[in-house]
Every structure is written in structure tokens, then in C-alpha cells.
Amino acid sequence: MVLVDLLKMMYNSSRWEDRFGAINGSILLIQFMYDTSGPNGADHALKDFVWNTIRVEKLPGLMLDHEFRVRNQLGLLLREMIGADAEKGAYHFEALKEMLLKNIEETFTREP
Predict the structure, then answer these.
(1) Which of 15, 32, 75, 112 sits between 20 and 30 A of 38, alpha carbons compared?
(2) Distance (Å, rounded) from C-alpha 88 to C-alpha 90?
(3) pTM
């Protein structure tokens, strides 16, 4: 899937605009191509991209991105991911919740 390869390149860009665009592109990809109700469910490559590349590899770093517009857009992406596949979404949301709480705790317990 060429679109997935393009989005991967955009996620790895040093430009915030590219990362922002990758998030928006991923949202659209999930909205229009991630269909678990069909006879074969969502395409394996698409599932791998959403849950292994975006969720496992990219989201932890993007949640700490220096650009607030990138961080803000993640909420819409997470909503689409969870809505597209509720079972996987609930599991991954729990892991993200723990990561966020740990980051918050580390931020407030750091000595100045």
C-alpha cells in the first residue's frame, strides 16, 4: 500500500507540518478503508500500520512532540482508531493512559 509508505515517511519527518499531515492522512485512511465488518475484516497491512506502526511506534513520541498542533491532533486520531476497532482500541487506550500518567508524574516530580 503506497499510501501507508507515504504516511510512514511523513511521520518520520522533522517538519511538524508533515507529522500533522500524517496524522490527518491516517485519520482519513481509518475512516474510509479500515472496515472490520466486511467478510475479511480490515486489510492485514492496514491493521499492522494502525496498531503497530502508529500506536506502538509513533504515538508515544508524538504525545511528547514539541509542536502543540501535532499533540492536539492525536485526540482525533485516537478516537478514530478506537472507533474503528473497539477491542484493540480499548487495550491500546489502557496502555496509553498508563504512559501518559507516568509522563505527568515524572514531570511534576522532577527537581527544578
Answers:
(1) 75
(2) 6
(3) 0.83
